[in-house]
Design goal:
Chitinase A, domain 3, rotamase, PPIase_FKBP_N_sf, PPIase_FKBP_N, seven-stranded antiparallel beta sheet, elongated, alpha+beta
């Protein structure tokens, strides 16, 4: 039972934090000072890493975990003088988990709203730039290089070969074929904003497109694409294959 409680606490700490290498100085009143020593055995090294990882979790958490109380709980366990029964600890962990989930939901809702506001503000401003073509108030593109005079034009139903890069509003690359091989795509199987832009292109053409989240991955995001993130694509239409 105790092992399960410790593992549960570790998972909860991890859910409140991001894995980071930053450290912070802390004053912990948890008994006699432990002399500095380099762990020698596997057990000692593991014990150190276990404690350090818990420190990393607490360093970044926003849920009110107190390092000094964590240290006291560990000492009480070693000395067999715990404050709570196993049943009480299970209830406390459950209450803390509810708090974690509530905070995660609040953070998600805030991120969804903030990203949507940023996307719509950007598109409204970007629409006024010279050279920007608005297919709707949610899909925009700009021609960077004209297509070949005799190049085939893509249709919404086409299979195409493209070279592309996708970034977010902060300039982070979230997907790219640049520097590798172009990829063949069936436009009906791509996000609607991407398909709408490519179906305006001809072979050899290169464009930059701005796509509203509702025409991309919406409020859930996908992989390293956050909820309600506007996407910016640089697209080179290599060929129309069918």
């Amino acid at each position: 039972m105790r092992i399960g409680l410790i593992l549960s606490l570790g998972l909860l700490l991890a859910s409140c934090s991001s894995n980071t290498s930053s450290t912070a100085s802390r004053d912990v009143d948890a008994g006699p000072a432990i002399p500095d020593a380099v762990p020698e055995t596997v057990d000692e090294r593991f014990s150190y890493v276990f404690g350090y990882q818990m420190g990393l979790a607490m360093d970044e958490n926003v849920m009110g975990i107190e390092p000094s109380v964590v240290a006291q709980g560990l000492l009480d366990y070693i000395e067999g003088t715990g404050l709570y029964s196993d049943e009480e600890m299970t209830q406390i962990l459950s209450e803390f988990q509810d708090k974690v989930f509530q905070r995660a939901e609040e953070l998600y809702r805030s991120t969804v709203a903030g990203n949507l506001d940023a996307a719509e503000a950007f598109l409204a401003s970007n629409a006024n730039r010279t050279g920007v073509v608005s297919l709707s108030d949610q899909i925009q593109y700009e021609v960077l290089q004209s297509g070949s005079p005799d190049g085939r034009r893509a249709l919404a139903s086409s299979t195409v070969t493209v070279d592309y890069q996708c970034i977010d509003l902060d300039g982070n690359i979230v997907d790219s074929t640049f520097g590798s091989q172009p990829v063949q795509l069936s436009l009906p199987d791509t996000i609607s904003g991407f398909s709408a832009v490519v179906s305006q292109m001809s072979e050899g053409e290169r464009v930059r497109a701005w796509i509203h989240p509702s025409q991309a991955y919406g409020s859930y995001g996908s992989g390293n694409i956050g909820p309600n993130e506007l996407l910016i694509f640089d697209i080179n239409l290599v060929s129309v294959d069918g």
